[in-house]
Design goal:
about 160 residues, two-stranded antiparallel sheet
Length: about 160
């Protein structure tokens, strides 16, 4: 029994790699989240070849561990038409978002807030973190459930391929 628990724990904490990015037939996505000023924003309208809508929360330990690597992905791939829209589900809003992003020195991603969690529900986000990949036309083309190893070159190659489609 202990061995089974150990395996399950390792599976839950091992970052997802390229093989875990599940591609799908393009499907239309219509969601709205809020920017810092409370204005509604559709993340698919950020104007990039590929937008990673990354759902997270300050209370999610896995999200906090993963966040610096997705911030680095944004820094490294910005020039390749990739944008990370980090969408917080924090009920405490911007004070909680600002606190954790300052503590983690997050500077590159676009920070947004799903204050009523409607976008997460509309996209059937099963848990945190979850990243929904949108193409330039705002269609979901892939999804990664769980923490991603955003430094993994194979995962980055897959994102480049999706951006090129």
């Amino acid at each position: 029994m202990r061995a089974v628990l150990l395996v399950l724990t390792l599976m839950a904490t091992t970052p997802a790699v390229a093989a875990d990015l599940v591609e799908s037939a393009p499907k239309a996505v219509a969601i709205t989240v809020q920017d810092r000023d409370g204005r509604d924003l559709d993340p698919s309208r950020l104007g990039e070849k590929l937008t990673l809508v990354h759902f997270w929360a300050s209370w999610c330990g896995t999200c906090r561990v993963e966040f610096p690597s997705i911030d680095a992905l944004q820094r490294d791939m910005r020039g390749e038409g990739v944008r990370v829209a980090a969408v917080s589900l924090d009920r405490l809003g911007w004070p909680a978002i600002d606190h954790i992003t300052a503590a983690l020195e997050i500077r590159e991603v676009t920070l947004l807030h799903d204050r009523n969690r409607r976008a997460a529900a509309d996209l059937a986000v099963p848990g945190l973190p979850t990243t929904v990949v949108l193409d330039a036309r705002g269609r979901e083309v892939a999804r990664l459930v769980g923490a991603g190893d955003w430094d993994d070159e194979d995962l980055r190659a897959k994102l480049r391929a999706l951006a090129g489609k």
